[in-house]
Backbone:
């Protein structure tokens, strides 16, 4: 009964994430992190960061990949059974995709009717910067932890993700290679894996 309750809770959580996220997978990460790490405490900060890293490297949308890995991890940790992990993956993944499926069906029906509407254009104009903010929040959440003391925020680095100076060096090198060097992200990921093996 507890396992069934956990599956339903997992599915409902990812259904809500799918229903209230605009802008794709990266915009989902901050909402997923809030639900999985903070609200339900199913995973630690470092475990979630590992899942995000794996989700970025594997083919497919990062939001769906993250849901799949989180679902597996949560159910496997709760039961110790691999097949239950697969059930958790299916529940989280399908729940995340369901709202988008429903919304897209509705949009296809109404898009041709309202695409030239000023209200539609205005709504999209407001959503674009919101999406940028959600993506930026996902990046900041992986680096900085915020603790609120009343109305005053206290910031600290997420130590689990940056264990020493080598971690910061790898972060800086990856950013420089991607932003200024315009190097293919796949090559940066492979280089990071090799350097991680050598350094740690």
Residues:
């Amino acid at each position: 009964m507890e396992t069934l309750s956990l599956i339903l809770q997992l599915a409902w959580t990812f259904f809500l994430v799918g229903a209230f996220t605009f802008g794709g997978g990266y915009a989902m990460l901050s909402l997923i992190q809030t639900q999985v790490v903070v609200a339900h405490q199913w995973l630690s900060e470092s475990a979630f960061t590992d899942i995000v890293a794996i989700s970025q490297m594997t083919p497919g949308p990062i939001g769906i990949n993250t849901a799949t890995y989180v679902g597996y991890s949560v159910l496997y940790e709760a039961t110790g059974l691999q097949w239950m992990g697969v059930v958790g993956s299916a529940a989280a993944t399908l729940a995340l995709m369901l709202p988008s499926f429903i919304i897209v069906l509705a949009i296809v029906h109404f898009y041709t009717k309202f695409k030239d509407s000023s209200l539609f254009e205005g709504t999209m104009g407001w959503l674009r910067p919101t999406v940028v903010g959600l993506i930026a929040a996902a990046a900041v959440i992986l680096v900085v932890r915020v603790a609120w003391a009343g109305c005053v925020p206290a910031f600290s680095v997420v130590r689990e993700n940056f264990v020493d100076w080598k971690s910061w060096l790898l972060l800086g090198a990856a950013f420089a290679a991607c932003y200024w060097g315009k190097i293919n992200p796949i090559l940066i990921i492979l280089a990071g894996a090799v350097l991680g093996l050598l350094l740690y």
Notes: DSSP finds eight helices and two strands in the chain.
